[in-house]
Write a structure and sequence with these properties.
Elements: H1 5-13, H2 20-35, H3 52-61, H4 66-73, H5 78-81, E1 86-91, H6 94-105, H7 113-127, E2 132-137, E3 146-151, E4 156-162, E5 165-178, E6 181-189, E7 193-200, E8 203-206, E9 221-223, E10 231-233, H8 252-272, E11 276-279, E12 292-294, E13 311-313, E14 350-353, H9 357-379, H10 393-429, E15 434-440, H11 450-462, H12 467-481, H13 486-498, H14 506-509, H15 515-528, H16 537-568
Antiparallel strand pairs: 1-15, 2-3, 2-10, 4-5, 5-6, 6-7, 7-8, 7-9, 11-14, 12-13
Helix pairs in contact: 3-8, 8-9, 11-12, 12-13
């Protein structure tokens, strides 16, 4: 779609998309849940239970839900740590291909495109579904680069979509002062141009007509003529009311309730969390309980006044007659009981009034329950460790499966978005050479811990599971155990593929395997300690075979020599 100046003015004055305002409100709330900020805006006054001053105090000490969100969304990190990622970009020449791959490995921000997607796109997918990724191009360069930029919905004045493709976008670019008046600059991006305007006296005015201002030329327009708007919507979760849904849409009301309950708990701790010390009243040791002491500056020859009296107010208890503070060396003398009817005071002469711990514990339990319910709403399961009982390996696997299903869906979306970003970037940088992009995210999500996977493997062995099943479980264990050490993981997988009868010990094989097979199993350990695992697996496999043959030949030669010596004797 190509907008003329009349249409641009009309859309600036009256945007065509009525949902933008609501999307901004939604993103503002979700961003507070995700990243903290003005938490007080999400806390309403509890009617009939607190006054305005109490509400302000609760707002001032309320804690954000950043830590909660980190817990709830932690499984999403597995999308980018899963094994199996593959990136196939078809480009006609090796020179252009090398140039483009070098670019996406290090964008202008100093990170790879994959890291950029993890950092910017993922958060937008969670909390800003109607925000977008705009592919910027350095149009004024002889050797232009292109790169993704995240545009929050807060930067958008209006846009129009046809399915998920943008027909035009009008951004709120910035505010500037022109001729001593402030104006909003609008950035208009359509199928043909990228231009800056502002409105003055109901007329559309070009901005940036000085060469170099905001990277636009003297005509304030970059005539890109792409025939499309190079932008990608953040989310693909359909909202039937219009636009897209955030990933955490199912728990937005629960988050609000959790934030409120957390603030109530915080105010409870703040006001009632300190034990109150009590004790029986004791006489002031300075005035012996009289409240007054001798005034040594009293002058009997002078008329009495407030300052000239025989006694004065005790400076220690200030006339209260009771001990106000205690010293660690202070003692209390109690009268000796004379008979069984006399009350026994010790040791209950002092103590503490403790807070209502039942209320405290109930508040914590309620928030933990809400936390568990929100995790289930997002992932369709609960974490085994949260159950309070030890889970078997099978139960842990069944609990994790819904998380893996959800992660697979998110991974598919990430693939789609990254492929589109690469396509737009390549078309801007190397339009004559780019063919296709096929990014495939890994689907081997490492949800379970190595301990859980090892227990599953051992259980499968004990139950005589098929070798193919044992292979799969052991490989999963290796990937989880050495996930952060790719070199060691590669070595261990090679060892796994090379070792004879890898799932069985020498003891297990006795009476089952042939003598040659048993010998190979025994020899593998000594060969393995000297093997060079930088070599490919085919070479290692041949070297192990040669090692076994050499060992057998040497042993046979020694046996022949012994036999010959025996015959000579």
């Amino acid at each position: 779609m190509v907008l003329d100046e009349g249409q641009i003015l009309q859309l600036i004055e009256k945007p065509s998309n009525p949902m933008i305002k609501e999307w901004k409100r939604q993103h503002g709330v979700l961003d507070i849940y995700m990243n903290g900020g003005d938490v007080a805006t999400q806390l309403e006054k509890v009617k009939n239970f607190e006054n305005e001053e109490q509400k302000k105090l609760r707002q001032s000490i309320a804690r954000s839900t950043k830590d909660l969100m980190s817990y709830l969304l932690n499984p999403l990190q597995k999308v980018y740590s899963a094994n199996g990622f593959n990136n196939q970009i078809e480009i006609k020449t090796e020179t252009a291909k090398k140039k483009f791959f070098e670019h996406i490995d290090k964008l202008p921000e100093g990170m790879s495109l994959r890291k950029w997607m993890q950092t910017y796109w993922m958060e937008a997918y969670i909390s800003d579904p109607n925000g977008l990724i705009l592919i910027e191009s350095e149009s004024w360069e002889d050797n232009p680069r292109s790169y993704p930029t995240y545009k929050s919905i807060n930067t958008v004045h209006d846009y129009k979509l046809k399915w998920d493709d943008f027909e035009y976008i009008i951004f709120l670019h910035k505010e500037v002062e022109i001729d001593n008046s402030k104006y909003q600059i609008y950035r208009v991006y359509d199928d043909e141009k990228d231009a800056l305007y502002y409105v003055k006296n109901n007329k559309l005015m070009p901005y940036g007509n000085v060469q170099g201002v905001d990277s636009f030329d003297e005509n304030h327009i970059w005539q890109h003529d792409k025939g499309y708007v190079p932008a990608v919507l953040a989310s693909d979760i359909v909202n039937k009311k219009g636009g897209k849904k955030p990933f955490i849409e199912k728990i937005d009301e629960s988050l609000k309730e959790y934030l409120r309950d957390s603030s109530v708990h915080s105010i409870y701790k703040f006001l009632h969390g300190f034990p109150i010390f009590w004790r029986y009243a004791m006489k002031c040791t300075t005035c012996s309980g009289d409240g007054r002491v001798t005034n040594y500056s009293y002058d009997p020859e002078q008329p009495e006044s407030d300052t000239n009296q025989p006694t004065k107010k005790c400076p220690t208890c200030h006339g209260k007659r009771l001990k106000v503070t205690s010293d660690v060396s202070d003692g209390v003398t109690l009268p000796l009981p004379q008979n069984s009817d006399d009350p026994k005071l010790a040791p209950d002469i002092a103590g503490y009034v403790t807070p209502d711990l039942e209320t405290w514990e109930r508040q914590v339990e309620e928030m933990l329950s809400m936390k568990k319910d929100m995790f289930y709403a997002l992932w369709g399961t609960t974490i085994a460790e949260e159950q309070g009982v030890e889970k078997t390996a099978t139960e842990a696997y069944l609990n994790v499966q819904p998380i893996m299903d959800k992660l697979s869906t998110v991974s598919d979306t990430a693939e789609e978005k990254e492929n589109k970003v690469i396509e737009y970037m390549a078309k801007a940088m190397i339009p004559d050479y780019f063919e296709t992009s096929t990014v495939k995210y890994g689907k081997r999500f490492l949800i379970e811990t190595p301990d859980v996977l090892w227990n599953k493997y051992i259980t499968a062995k004990e139950k005589n599971a098929p070798v193919s099943t044992l292979d799969h479980l052991y490989e999963q264990y290796l990937m989880a155990e050495y996930h952060n050490d790719m070199a060691m993981m590669e070595r261990k997988i090679k060892e796994f593929n090379l070792e004879p009868f890898v799932h069985y010990s020498v003891t297990d094989l006795k009476g089952i395997a042939t003598a040659d097979q048993l010998q190979e199993k025994i020899l593998f350990s000594s060969w393995n300690s000297k093997a060079d695992y930088d070599k490919d697996i085919e070479t290692l496999e041949q070297e192990f075979k040669d090692y076994v043959i050499k060992y057998k030949d040497e042993n046979n030669s020694e046996d022949s020599s012994r036999n010959q010596r025996g015959q000579g004797d």
